[in-house]
Amino acid sequence: MAISMGLNRRQFLAAAAAAQAAAQTRPELQTAPAPHSTPPLCLYSQVVVKVEYADLPPVLKGMGFDGCDLSVQVGGHVRPDMASLDLVRAVEHLRGAGIDVPVISTALTSVQDPNANEVLGIAGIIKIPLFRPGHWRYGDGDVMTRLSEVRRDVTQLGGMGRAAGLAMAFHNQAGDSVGASVWDTNAVISGMDARAVGYDFDIAAAVAEGGDEGWSVALRLALPRIKMVTAADFYWAKMDGGGWRMTPCALGEGMVDWPRFCATLARANFQGPISLHLDYHPASDVSAIERDLAFLKKQIAAAYSKTG
After folding, report:
1. CA 20, CA 12: separation in Å to the nearest integer?
2. Which residues are CB-neighbours of 52 under 8 A, at least 6 positions away?
3. Phi and psi for 236 in degrees, rounded to 5?
4. d(CA 44, CA 61)
5. Which strand (E) or helix (H) includes residue 58?
6. What is the full DSSP assignment across 163-219?
7. What is the pTM of this model?
8. Measured distance between the N- and C-terminal CA atoms of the chain, rounded to whole angstroms
9. Which stretches of 48-179 are assigned E, i.e. beta strand?
10. Bridge pairing between strands 244-249 and 233-238
11. What is the C-alpha separation between 301 and 262, in angstroms, rounded?
12. Are 119 and 83 in contact, with CB atoms under 8 Å apart?
């Protein structure tokens, strides 16, 4: 989920400030709010990991985000072993500027992780409602055995989260990941309390795994338990040695049918957070984030304005 940024911290902050000032003088870039309630749009903070958490609020506020999907993992904004100090401070900075923190993204896959109890416990104390766990790989072993192992881990980790007051949002990451097809996630979590464990539905991954219509079936399967959505896009690129590669790209320039996807969310009155990812490498990080957010706002506003 992480990317490396081409700008250093000072350059990024300067560019973000310039983009904010420019946007204020360009009314055509502003998206009118939808007449009905819409999901909060968040930035996955790993996208701007070179910006320290104390500097995140003006960046996110200036770009027009409602919230922050805060990275609490090694190499993220908050180190798991420093959660008792930095998680509280980071959230205080963000909320103080009017930026909500509806979810933290972690690498947790087991209650045996030495930081699991502290990270989830602190997050619960400061009233963060959702956490995204790490990813479980299939590897080369027996599939059913692996699903059983993941079911055990999710049951325990989800229980720990619920005890702290958080629900788990299981991410359908594409590739060799348990949950990529969504059907396998359903086999793991279908018998669990929907208040404690649900989905982080990644539309790009669903399209990559399910194809032209399979993503829609996966979405309908997951919809009653979707806690949050990951917003990303991609296209298939031909590799020099043969075969095809899933290549991340700007929203609206890839395979995702955004009007249809957003319309489905609107009909279900989905109100969970939507986390914008930037898994590609644009020439300008600031411009790319600004462009993707504007695109996402337009799609969400159009879809939700048609619902009563």
Report:
1. 12
2. 9, 77
3. -90, 125
4. 14
5. helix 56-63
6. HHT-EEEEE--SSSBTTTTSHHHHHHHTTS-TTTEEEEEEHHHHHHHHHHHHHHHHH
7. 0.88
8. 35
9. 67-71, 100-105, 130-132, 167-171
10. antiparallel
11. 9
12. yes
User: How far apart (Å, rounded) are the C-alpha atoms in residues 203 and 213?
Assistant: 12
Q: What is the pLDDT of residues 224-255, one digit of tens each?
A: 999 999 999 999 998 887 788 999 999 999 99
Q: Would you state the structure tokens that stand for residue 204, as one six-digit string?
A: 């790009």
Q: Give domain 9-305's CATH architecture.
A: Alpha-Beta Barrel (3.20)
The predicted model gives 171-192 an average pLDDT of 94
E-strand ranges in the chain read: 41-44, 67-71, 100-105, 130-132, 167-171, 197-202, 226-231, 233-238, 244-249, 274-276
Structure tokens at 58: 């003006």
Interatomic CA distance for residues 232 and 248, integer angstroms: 8
- Integer Cα distance of 209 and 118 in angstroms: 35
**Closest Cα to residue 148, out of 158, 140, 138?**
138
The C-alpha angle with vertex 168 and arms to 270 and 76, in degrees rounded to 5, equals: 105
- Per-domain residue ranges of the chain: 9-305
pLDDT tens digits, 38-59: 999 999 999 999 999 999 999 9
Residues 41, 80 contacting (CB under 8 angstroms): no
Paired tokens of 294:
């504007």
> Which residue do the tokens 């190499």 mark?
75
How far is it, in rounded angstroms, from Cα 286 to Cα 303? Answer: 26
